[in-house]
Amino acid sequence: MFGFKQAWACLFGALMLILLLGTHLFYPEGAPLHRYDFITLGAVVIQGVMLALRLETLEEAKVILIFHVVGTVMELFKTAAGSWLYPEASVLHIGAVPLFSGFMYASVGSYIARVWRIFDFRFSNYPPRWATYLLAAAIYANFFAHHWLPDVRILIFAAVGWYFAFTKIHFRNWRRHRWMPLLVGFLLVALFIWFAENIGTYARAWSYPGQENEWKMVGIGKLGSWYLLMIISFVLVSLVNPVRKPD
User: Fold this and answer.
1) What pLDDT does 90 receive?
2) What pLDDT sits at residue 31?
3) Taken in order 160, 164, 168, 172, is the CA torsion positive or negative?
4) SS (H, E, C) 76-145
5) How high is the pLDDT of residue 11?
6) Which of 35, 169, 174, 56 is closest to 106 using CA atoms?
C-alpha cells in the first residue's frame, strides 16, 4: 500500500520522465518542432489534465507555480555559471534554459503536495515555522552565493539536523498512522530524485560537465544538493498544507 500510494503521488514526475525518455528514444530527427519544445508543450498538457481531473487542487497548483518560478531563476543562474547545460535547440526558452526545466522542479512540488494529502501527514516535535523559513531562505541563497563566497552548506546541514533531529512524520497507509524520522523521509525522497536525475541526463534533457560526449552517472555528491532542495520544497508546500499534530 505504501509503494502504491507513493507511485500515485509522483504521477506528474513519472509522466515527465516518460516524456523525457520517450522523446530521447523515439523522437524523429529533423522534426519541424524541436524536441525540447515538444517536451514543454507535453508538460503543459500533463499539468492541465491533472487539474481538469482534480488530481491536483488549485491551492497545490499555486505552490507548483512557485516551484516553477524558483526553479527557472536558479536554472538561469546555474547555466550561466556553467554548472550544467541544455545541449539541444529550442524556441520556447529563456536565455539558455528551455521552459520545460521549470516543470522538472514543479514535478517535485507536485509530488510533495500530493503525498502530503494522500498520506494525511501529521508531525510531532516540528520546529518553529520561522526557523524552517530561515533555513529554506539560507539554502536557496547558498545555491547562488557559493560561487563567490565560502560554501556554508555544512553549517546548513548542521542547522537542519539541529532543528529536525526529533521531528517525526506520521503517515497513514490504511487505517492508522505510522511514523518515521522526518530527516530519513527527506533522504529517501532525495535518493529517488537522484535516480530520476540520472534518467534525465541519460535522456539528454540536460548534461553536466563531463557528460557532453558520453553519458556517465551523476555523482553521488549531488544527493546532498537534492537533500537541501527537499527542505526548500517541503517548506514551500507547508505554506498551503497545514502542519498538524497527530490525533
Assistant:
1) 94
2) 92
3) negative
4) HHHHHCCCCECCCCCCCEECCEECHHHHHHHHHHHHHHHHHHHCCCEEECCCCHHHHHHHHHHHHHHHHH
5) 94
6) 56
Distance CA(233)–CA(76), nearest Å, equals 19
Identify the three-state secondary structure at position 46: helix
Residue 48: inside a domain, yes or no?
yes
Low-confidence spans in the chain with pLDDT less than 70: none
Residue 225: give the domain boundaries: 2-238
Residue 218 per-residue DSSP state: P
Contact assessment for residue 205 and residue 198, using Cβ atoms and an 8 Å cutoff: no
Place of cell 527537499: 230
Say which amino acid occupies 105. Answer: Y
pLDDT, tens digit (0-9, with 9 covering 90-100), for 210-220 = 887 888 899 88
Domain for residue 77, yes or no?
yes
Per the domain annotation, does 245 fall within a domain?
A: no
Place of cell 547562488: 144
Number of domains in the chain: 1
Which pLDDT tens digit goes with each residue over 13-54? 999 999 999 999 999 988 999 999 999 999 999 999 999 998
Is 243 inside a domain boundary? no
pLDDT, position 64: 83
Q: Which three cell numbers stand for residue 7?
A: 507511485
- Tracing cell 537541501 back to the chain, one arrives at 228
Cβ–Cβ < 8 Å for 196, 13: yes
Distance (Å, rounded) from C-alpha 137 to C-alpha 159?
13
